[in-house]
Amino acid sequence: MPEMITGKKTQRYSTEFKVKAVEWSHQAHRSVKGVAEALDIHPFMLSRWRKEYREGQFAMKRVKKAPADAKQKIQEQDEVARLKRRVSELEEENDILKKSTFSGRGTTEAFRFVWKHRGQHEVKALCRHLNISRSGYYAWANRKPSQRAAENADLLLKVRRVYNASKGRYGSPRVYQALRREGLVVGENRVARLMREWGMKARVTRVYRRLSKRRDDLKALPNYRLEAKKPVAVNQQWSSDVTYIKLGKKYVFLAVVLDLFSRRIISWRLGESLSADFARGTLREAFTSRNPAPDLLFHTDRGIEYRAHKTQALLNHHRVRHSMNRPGQCTDNAEVESFFKTLKGELLHATSFMTLRQLRKHIRGYIDGYYNSHRLHSGLGYRTPIEFEEIN
């Protein structure tokens, strides 16, 4: 503690001592409390000196030196503060590094990254990490949007509207075709770029099928589709298949009948067990709704539910020519496989259903209210199945 001047009730400090203490306390990386502790004085006293210093009340009368160890304490505090700042900077840089995924895409992308994360990090730290100038960033941020940027913003709203209307099921090709149907002239790559930049991706999932190991035992009909011509009207060629859907802790089965000309789902059935009656019921509904002429080509996989005597009797009654996949060639029935992939990706992926009634309601809404009537099909020139049947 500084030496006390005798003869006084209170100790006095030299003006130079006070000025030095005030100057130290005004440095950005130091606090009043830290300087007071180093000088062994009360923080309130240092605060009063700071006020008197601002008011110009100090007069150079006596000279008293600061304590011998004060400088060392101040240096130690400075080093601790410097290390804390460095740790904080490294943690922030590590956090920024985890978020930066645009490496090599140019200065504009770096500016956009700073703009996006300026609420979580200081602009100074972001610019230092990305090696860009703050003046350049602020010039970019304050610049009025170009005509192209304004057009992109307007286009983005339209893309978002189509994407949301499809409940996230449309990728860029279908969004592009939907905008064209509205009369908007725009490039497909531009739509794809906007969707990629704003994270709009189509809902998709992979469908896995386990191939049967008993191929030699499957005595079934040949694949007549390999030699058949492409259908030119409805009710010339149908295709059918069954897939499984997880419902809680068990699996249920979905059977569909699809018209290969228009890709329209003619009939479908959801059940808890896979049997010949299940597949035959779906097929009977299709005959009732479409009443096809004789010599219809009906293609399926080599499942026992389609090879059963009851199913074959129904097909013979309607004079239908039954065609089946080649052993191990599930792509022979690609159209129905594609529908199942679309259904699972756009409706069932990342969604859980607890009851069969709930699942049936959602599948009905998807097939009847969306897939057949609203979903643009790339194989149909980006028309819906119902629309394609009406114009043909």
TrEMBL record:
Alphabetical UniProt keywords: Coiled coil
Chain segments annotated as coiled-coil in the UniProt record: 73-100
Keyword Nucleotide-binding tagged: no
GO molecular function: DNA binding; transposase activity
Cross-referenced PROSITE patterns: INTEGRASE (PS50994)
GO biological process terms on file: DNA integration; DNA transposition
Record flagged with keyword 4Fe-4S: no
Sequence ranges assigned to domain Integrase catalytic in this UniProt record: 227-392
Stated family: Belongs to the transposase 8 family.
Annotated NCBIfam families: transpos_IS3 (NF033516)
Protein name, entry field: IS3 family transposase
